[in-house]
């Protein structure tokens, strides 16, 4: 038994289960702490006109008449059997909704990260190539802009200017998935991915710059240069290769954030992702939708962390050796 | 020897630029095709695309209160009576109605040849079943209180419906026009209709992608003389109003309704025209006279006299609206000039405060919704600044819209900055608020024997001119006692792309005239 507990995979599994259980309890409690319920969310101010008998009928309809503990364990029990609940608003199961929204968000996250890396890594290397020179200032300026310009502002401005001046607004058309219409889908994903990618590029640029500067002063780089390693090979293989660990860490964190945190951009660009699913669930106080979707996001975050750890083993031989 | 970093930078920059250009090129090269197909589909295929910020939260008409849900359901379901563009009550599924027995019986003649979307015929059994279920509290229908005057429903023959009333109810024909009193087939259930609507309206449900779009198809069996002009209407969900404007400017959306004057101004460009329609809904500072200082009529009157409504309108809503009294319905409109202090009078306000023994000032805890509607916080700040000059401190509590509704429903506030919906008939609009037994009286915070008497009189009077006089007295009673402080009624803005014709916006915000709209 001791052996099993000390086994790395088992410990990891227990950690994941603990994390997900914590998330489940937290989201359940937080939702109940928010004022209002599904009745007031659905009827708005008209809920004030309900008679006591009508109120009781609706509480029974939405399952609000059951004790909180019973509601929690009923939900958890259902989740463990693969039933994530049902959305009365959408008239679909949460599992079905999630199977449609999660791939959309994953695609958006991947595209955003790709754009962020394409912007952040070259800029970080450019800045580190000559510290305190104008190119460094340029890199820092772009990074500062990425950090300080709110995503909603950049998104709205881009959308308005492109639509009014050039009639370009693929997001005004009905959303197309990658499988349905790849061309339209990529158009619809480009601007939101650019907005998100620009914001994420900033921490990646800063991490790259710091890591490259640090590694360039290491002994092995000087040795390699003295041995006549060509400059390009030196920069790419030795310096950037070793800077990849912190960059990967930062990228993994940002990817996890995108799984649930892209909701503002999803709203503005009408991207039916998982963030919007949670937002709509909160607005309608559809407890099962919010609870189960947040649990899925937490699980996705855990998986991303696992993948990031696995990636360390690929890019850093020292991790493999340990 | 070249500097190593320069080479690296060039390689990295080239890679980044190439990738960005590839993506940008991909998007720009395919843009015209995508955009063209959408607008082409709308114009050439007879599909009207309506931009909405949310899809319906329910497709069951008896429980629908959300603006978007009501707008969709009005096009799917039929009602016994309807409202025309001027909010007059006109025949719907009932071709005629007649009061008898001193107003205690209402006999309706039902239209022949009407069918539901599933092909089944509509008759008096369906109408009776619908009204009985709406009145049953177990259904939890929002219009149950609207039918409070109905004692029983009889269906003596397939074309006749008889409503036996507890007391005469002149507002009943108008109240029957609400989609919350929609006629459903007696065979249908809430669960079935929530999944698949089955109405007698001009459109049927064609398809729905949750949170993205809902498409209606013209109903070829619609009973109206004028059949829908478009083959389909797509309600496309674009959650942000500014993004709807962008979608209209790029030709992807052909019609949208906004209530934010700022958004409406940005929408009005060369290809998009914006028409504004005065609304029945009204902005008010609700006062809860059952709490604290507001129990004193003079404190309430002091607030009323210290408010410059025109300034609130100008600062909070860009001047887009009209200062109003309690009743906004065109046929019964209150005259705002007849209220005490029709213009701001700080001396009078001080007089009232002194009379209440509060010369040193009062503090009123006021709830404000953040996000429920565009101008709420601006209105609250304008009111706070004005009332501060009269030693009245509005202690603002700005709440997220869900929290606001929760507090409002529980009447847990001294004052509330609110935008309340209006109705064509003043009895339906205020009877439930300001009569002592009204189901919203707890929220209204005010009632009086005189108001009970006047509303009773209004319900039992059928002569229109006499009713107008009665509701003028109601308005005077409300304002003389400063039950609330009515501020202004705003506009709704209907934005239409060029090529859209025949749509008539209504003062109640209804989209029922989608059936007369054409798109080229």
Task: Describe the overall structure.
The complex is a heterodimer of chains A (322) and B (520). Chain A is mainly alpha-helical and 322 residues long. Chain A folds into 2 domains: 84 residues, no CATH class; 227 residues, MetI-like fold (Orthogonal Bundle), CATH 1.10.3720.10. Helix content of chain A is 78%, strand content 1%. A two-stranded antiparallel sheet of chain A has the order 1-2. In chain A, a hairpin with a 4-residue loop joins β1 and β2. In chain A, α6 crosses α9, α8 packs across α9 and α13 runs antiparallel to α14. Chain B is of the alpha+beta class and 520 residues long. Chain B has a domain of 208 residues: Dipeptide-binding Protein, domain 3, CATH 3.10.105. In chain B, 34% of the residues lie in helices and 23% in strands. Chain B is built from 16 helices and 20 strands. In chain B, strands 1, 8, 9, 10, 11, 12, 13, 14, 15, 16, 17 and 18 form a 12-stranded mixed beta sheet that branches. In chain B, strands 4-5-7-6 form a 4-stranded antiparallel beta sheet, with helices on one face. In chain B, α6 packs parallel to α7 and α8 runs antiparallel to α10. The longest helix of chain B is centred in the first third of the chain and has 41 residues. The radius of gyration of chain B is 26 Å and the shape is globular. The N terminus of chain B is likely disordered.
């Amino acid at each position: 038994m001791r052996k099993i507990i000390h086994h790395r995979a088992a410990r990891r599994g227990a950690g994941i289960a603990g994390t997900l259980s914590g998330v489940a309890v937290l989201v359940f409690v937080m939702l109940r702490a928010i004022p209002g319920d599904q009745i007031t969310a659905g009827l708005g101010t008209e809920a004030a006109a309900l008679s006591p008998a009508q109120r009781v009928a609706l509480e029974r309809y939405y399952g609000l008449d059951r004790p909180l503990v019973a509601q929690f364990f009923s939900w958890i029990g259902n989740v463990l059997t693969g039933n994530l609940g049902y959305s009365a608003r959408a008239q679909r199961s949460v599992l079905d909704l999630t199977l449609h929204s999660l791939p959309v968000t994953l695609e958006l996250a991947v595209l955003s990260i790709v754009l962020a890396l394409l912007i952040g890594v070259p800029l970080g290397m450019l800045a580190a190539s000559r510290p305190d020179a104008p190119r460094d200032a340029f890199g820092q300026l772009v990074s500062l802009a990425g950090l300080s310009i709110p995503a909603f502002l950049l998104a709205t401005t881009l959308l308005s200017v492109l639509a009014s001046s050039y009639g370009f607004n693929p997001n005004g058309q009905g959303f197309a998935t990658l499988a349905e219409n790849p061309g339209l889908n990529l158009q619809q994903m480009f601007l939101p991915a650019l907005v998100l990618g620009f914001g994420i590029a900033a921490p990646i640029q800063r991490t790259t710059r710091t890591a490259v500067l640090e590694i360039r002063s290491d002994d092995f780089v000087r040795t390699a240069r003295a041995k006549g390693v060509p400059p390009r090979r030196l920069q790419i293989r030795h310096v950037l290769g070793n800077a990849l660990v912190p960059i990967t860490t930062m990228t993994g964190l940002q990817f996890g954030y995108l799984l649930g945190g892209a909701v503002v951009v999803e709203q503005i660009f009408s991207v039916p992702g998982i963030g919007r699913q949670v937002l709509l669930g909160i607005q309608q106080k559809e407890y099962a939708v919010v609870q189960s979707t947040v649990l899925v996001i937490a699980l996705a975050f855990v998986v991303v962390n696992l993948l990031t750890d696995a990636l360390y083993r690929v890019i850093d031989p020292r991790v493999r050796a340990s | 020897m070249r500097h190593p970093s320069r080479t690296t930078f060039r390689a990295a920059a080239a890679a980044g630029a190439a990738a960005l250009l590839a993506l940008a090129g991909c998007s720009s090269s395919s843009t015209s095709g995508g955009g063209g197909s959408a607008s082409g589909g709308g114009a050439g295929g007879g599909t009207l695309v309506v931009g909405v910020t949310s899809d319906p939260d329910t497709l069951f008409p008896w429980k629908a209160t959300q603006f978007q849900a009501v707008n969709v359901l009005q096009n799917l379901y039929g009602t016994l009576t309807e409202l025309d563009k001027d909010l007059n009550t006109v025949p719907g599924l009932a071709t005629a109605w007649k009061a008898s027995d001193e107003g205690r019986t209402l006999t309706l003649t039902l239209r022949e040849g009407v069918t539901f979307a599933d092909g089944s015929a509509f008759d008096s059994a369906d109408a009776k079943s619908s009204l009985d279920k709406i009145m049953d509290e177990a259904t939890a229908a929002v219009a149950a209180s609207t039918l409070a005057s109905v004692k029983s429903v009889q269906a003596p023959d397939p074309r006749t419906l008889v409503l036996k009333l507890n007391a005469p109810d002149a507002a009943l024909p108008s109240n029957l026009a609400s989609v919350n009193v929609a006629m459903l087939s007696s065979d249908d259930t809430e669960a079935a209709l929530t999944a698949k609507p089955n109405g007698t309206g001009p459109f049927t449900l064609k398809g729905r992608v949750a949170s993205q779009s809902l498409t209606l198809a013209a109903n070829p069996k619609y009973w109206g003389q004028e059949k829908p002009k478009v083959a389909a209407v797509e309600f496309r969900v674009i959650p942000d109003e500014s993004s709807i404007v962008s979608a209209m400017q790029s030709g992807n959306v052909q019609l949208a309704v906004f209530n934010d004057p700022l958004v409406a101004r940005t929408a009005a460009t060369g290809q998009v025209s914006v028409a504004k329609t005065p609304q029945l809904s009204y902005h008010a500072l609700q006062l809860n006279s059952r709490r604290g200082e507001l129990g004193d009529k003079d404190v309430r009157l002091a607030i009323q006299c210290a408010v410059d409504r025109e300034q609130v309108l100008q600062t909070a809503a860009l001047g887009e609206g009209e200062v109003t009294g309690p009743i906004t319905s065109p046929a019964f409109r209150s005259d705002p000039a007849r209220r005490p202090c029709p213009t701001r009078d700080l001396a009078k306000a001080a007089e009232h405060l002194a009379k209440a023994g509060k010369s040193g000032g009062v503090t009123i805890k006021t709830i404000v919704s953040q996000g429920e509607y565009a101008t709420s916080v601006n209105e609250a700040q304008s009111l706070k600044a004005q009332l501060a000059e009269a030693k009245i401190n509005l202690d603002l509590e700005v709440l997220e819209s869900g929290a606001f509704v929760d507090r409002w429903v529980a009447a847990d506030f001294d004052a509330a900055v609110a935008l309340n919906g209006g109705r064509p008939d003043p009895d339906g609009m205020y009877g439930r608020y300001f009569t002592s037994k009204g189901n919203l009286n707890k929220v209204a915070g005010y009632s009086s024997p005189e108001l009970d008497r006047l509303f009773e009189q209004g319900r039992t009077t059928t002569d229109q001119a006499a009713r107008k006089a009665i509701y003028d007295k109601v308005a005077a009673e409300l304002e003389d006692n400063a039950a609330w402080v009515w501020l202004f009624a705003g506009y709704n803005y209907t934005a239409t792309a060029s090529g859209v014709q025949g749509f008539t916006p209504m003062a109640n915000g209804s989209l029922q005239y989608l059936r007369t709209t054409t798109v080229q």
